[in-house]
UniProtKB/TrEMBL annotation:
SUPFAM superfamilies, per database record: UDP-Glycosyltransferase/glycogen phosphorylase
Protein name as annotated: Glycosyltransferase
Biological source species: Massilia terrae
GO molecular function, one term: glycosyltransferase activity
InterPro entries membership: Glyco_trans_4-like_N (IPR028098), Glycosyltransferase_grp1 (IPR050194)
Enzyme class: transferase
Regions of compositional bias (Basic and acidic residues) in chain numbering: 411-424
Keywords assigned: Glycosyltransferase, Transferase
Top-level taxon in the UniProt lineage: Bacteria
UniProt region (Disordered), positions on chain: 405-424
Residue ranges of every copy of the Glycosyltransferase subfamily 4-like N-terminal domain listed in the record: 29-196
Gene3D superfamilies: Glycogen Phosphorylase B
Taxonomic path: Bacteria, Pseudomonadati, Pseudomonadota, Betaproteobacteria, Burkholderiales
Enzyme Commission no: 2.4.-.-
């Protein structure tokens, strides 16, 4: 697939330089194959600065600063200014930031380029969950968190997302969830978590030389631990495995986001006297973690059900499948979809007995485990590799660029004759009425429309083709039809909602006639 070069000014929430595969691999390796480069904008993390191979990186401020929560939007604006001075963006995209999302929308309007929002997590609902936790705990800070949650909800759902030309979401479940809130499904592209096929090639990974795994039936949990993820559930499963299969060993290859959370995990481990049956490695480089993974017989992926995680797309299950590890996962929508389509694991409710029984079944039935393991790598290569996901994302940008208005240039502003002239359309109806400039019917409705066309179908029949915003409701459609009928009484007119309309010589709202 070939397309015109595209430069994206991309404001992200994660620290720079990026470590997440859906930024590092997708935007760093895959999208440049399609001529899509990016100017990453955000705050610096703890890792040393590195060049961004797919464009440039603009780190302003540090996430470790006490003022980061207050100043990050201002820092992002400065970073966006630097990015625009280096290369004019074709698209402005913001990921998981709310105040910066509003600034990004405004900047895109000034530059006359599409604004795109990338939602990998329901951040507003996360703020509301934190508010509720603090209120239940009787913490004095909960009113401030309540104010943050309320403001965030208003800004994101009333100002940011309605102005986004396109929304990338984490899963099909998230797309359905946003559609239920009134956002057009046609403006969304689900991009679930994937894997780098080369990095997760089992043949290239050296198994961990850890004697603690020798002679044990190793079960793996690969990823972050946290109270919010109910990570102590893993100890519930380990207790049942210990009782039924004393030589089992659960390896938890991952760390918590804070030392307090990690201390909580260690204290739970000690309290339950599971030191001989659970190996808590703490943080590991990815190569080392994968070394432990390829020594495992079963991979576990328990994700709590609820508003925050039901719309997520967990990485660990897809990583297990890519490595040929038969898996046990619970029934959040994306995991259920992966298990059903790949046939490479067992899907059970998030209950300790159910997880333990499914794990023991795989440990005891080697033929079943081998059969499930064999289906994983091929399915991941064809459905969840970043090569496949990159192609999907590139197509979405291609459609977006095709529908985007051509930005004004200084030459356009100095000399109107230098820009393509209007192509005025006139039409004579069967009753002798002569019509022109029917594009003016969209005046007063452009706040709920991205683009529109009036097309004549013959015999006084018209179609109003529109690209709606998320705010375009049935009442707006009726008002638009009413505006048209005031200009052309007695006409037969319908409204057709479409995902995109290529920009014509007359701008984003035009009259095209005849179309018979």
């Amino acid at each position: 697939m070939r397309q015109a070069p595209t430069n994206i000014a991309f404001i992200i929430r994660d620290p720079l330089p990026p470590a997440r595969a859906d930024v590092l691999t997708l935007f760093g390796d895959e999208l440049p194959r399609y001529g899509i480069t990016s100017e990453l904008i955000g705050q610096a993390g703890a890792a040393p600065a590195q060049p961004w191979r797919a464009g440039a990186m603009h780190a302003v401020g540090r996430l470790s600063s006490r003022r980061a929560s207050l100043l990050s939007a201002w820092w992002d604006l400065r970073g966006l200014w630097r990015a625009c001075r280096r290369a004019r963006p074709d698209i402005i995209q913001v990921r998981d930031k709310i105040a910066s999302g509003l600034l990004g929308r405004l900047a895109a309007a000034v530059l006359r380029v599409p604004f795109v929002y990338w939602m990998s997590f329901p951040i507003v609902e996360g703020f509301e969950a934190r508010r509720d936790d603090l209120r239940r705990a009787g913490r004095r800070s909960w009113p401030a968190h309540a104010l943050r949650a309320a403001l965030s909800r208003f800004v994101l759902y009333r100002l940011v997302l309605p102005g986004a030309r396109h929304i990338f979401v984490q899963s099909e479940a998230m797309a359905a969830w946003l559609a239920d809130r009134g956002f057009a499904r046609a403006r969304m592209t689900p991009v679930p978590m994937g894997v780098d096929g080369a990095r997760f090639d089992r043949a290239r990974i050296a198994p961990a030389a850890d004697p603690r795994l020798d002679g044990r039936r190793v079960v793996l949990y690969l990823g972050r631990v946290a109270r919010a993820r109910r990570s102590d559930f893993l100890f519930d499963v380990a207790e049942r495995l210990r009782a039924a299969m004393p030589d089992s060993l659960l390896v938890i290859a991952g760390a918590a986001a804070s030392s307090d959370e990690m201390d909580w995990m260690r204290s739970e481990l000690d309290r339950r006297d599971l030191a001989g049956h659970v190996l808590l490695t703490g943080w590991l480089p990815q190569e080392a973690a994968l070394g432990y993974a390829v020594r495992a017989e079963v991979g576990l992926s328990p994700i709590p059900r609820g508003a925050l995680f039901d719309v997520s797309s967990p990485t660990k299950l897809v990583e297990y499948l890519a490595l040929g590890i038969p898996s046990v996962a619970n029934d959040i929508p994306d995991q259920r979809l992966v298990i059903e389509q790949s046939g490479a694991g067992l899907c059970v409710p998030m209950a300790a007995d159910a997880f333990a029984d499914a794990t023991l079944r795989l440990l005891r039935d080697r033929e079943l485990a081998a059969s499930l393991a064999a289906g994983g790598p091929g399915w991941v290569r064809s459905h969840r590799s970043y090569a496949i996901l990159g192609k999907r994302v590139a197509r979405a940008y291609q459609r977006l660029r095709a529908a985007a208005p051509r930005p004004a240039t200084p030459l356009d502003r100095r000399s109107p004759a230098a820009a393509p002239g209007r192509e005025e359309c006139t039409l004579t109806l069967p009753d002798g009425r002569r019509l022109a400039r029917l594009d003016r019917v969209f005046q007063g409705h452009d706040h709920v429309l991205v683009a529109g066309q009036v097309r004549y179908r013959g015999a006084a029949r018209f179609v109003l083709r529109v690209v709606p915003t998320a705010c375009f409701a049935a009442a707006d459609e009726a008002a638009l039809i009413g505006s048209f009928l005031r200009r052309v009484p007695g006409a037969d007119v319908t409204v057709e909602r479409v995902d995109a309309i290529p920009r014509g010589p007359n701008g984003k709202f035009e009259f095209i006639a005849p179309d018979m």
